[in-house]
Design goal:
- With about 220 residues, the protein is of the alpha+beta class.
- Strands 1, 2, 3, 4, 5, 6, 7, 8 and 9 form a nine-stranded antiparallel beta sheet that branches.
- The protein is about 25% helix and about 30% strand.
- It contains five helices and nine strands, in the order αββββαββαααβββ.
């Protein structure tokens, strides 16, 4: 089966990204772009991002997770530490995050190092989750082979019974990562494939070098 996509064309004409638009710190520009995406009606989940890791098998793998917080230090998400991405990060904590908001013709690519959050911060976020999500964190042995959907449902029911009428604690194998950026690239679509690409690179003195890349 073949499906030729070579005639697919889209002209990017909504905005521009010039050096005069770029603050000294990329987190400021990220905040501005994120707030715009979050306020745009046809962006369903502005905080959906791809997380790429290098697996123990040597292959890169990308999956979509939800950004839960960003600070001057970096970007925070939560997951099962025993999942495929958790094990990959334990071996090699170099990761890449990317956001793509097609309706704004914008993309952000972040390279950095992932570090586990402190237990109290992971506890605080876990406590804020609905009970169903808390139980899911217990029931799902993420990335492991399971015999059937029914087996998953039965495992969830068993934890519902175990924690019935009690506080649901955070599993020790579940928590957050803080990705500290070393490179942040902002991509703005432009006509004729002459896109704007501005890259911030962290210097040894923790200032940022700002460069324009060819599209």
């Amino acid at each position: 089966m073949a499906h030729d996509l070579s005639d697919y064309r889209k002209s990017y004409e909504k905005q521009e990204l010039l050096e005069k638009h770029c603050p000294e710190n990329p987190i400021e520009l990220f905040r501005d772009w994120f707030m715009l995406a979050d306020a745009t009606d046809n962006v369903v989940e502005a905080n959906a991002m791809s997380v790429a890791t290098i697996g123990k098998d040597g292959f890169p793998k990308t999956r979509v997770v939800l950004l839960k917080k960003y600070t001057w230090e970096g970007f925070i998400f939560y997951t099962n530490y025993q999942s495929e991405k958790g094990k990959a990060i334990a071996e090699n904590n170099a990761v890449c995050l990317s956001f793509f908001w097609p309706s704004l013709e914008q993309q952000i690519i972040i390279k950095g190092r992932a570090e586990k959050l402190s237990e109290n911060l992971s506890d605080g976020y876990f406590d804020s989750r609905p009970d169903g999500s808390k139980l899911g964190a217990w029931a799902s042995e993420q990335s492991q082979v399971v015999p059937s959907r029914d087996a998953l449902d039965q495992r969830l029911l068993s934890f519902e019974q175990q924690f019935k009428d009690t506080e649901i604690p955070r599993p020790v194998h579940w928590g957050g990562y803080l990705v500290k950026p070393e490179s942040v690239e902002f991509w703005q679509g432009r006509p004729n494939r002459m896109h704007d690409r501005i890259r911030y690179t962290l210097n040894e003195d923790f200032t940022w070098n700002i460069e324009r890349l060819a599209p």
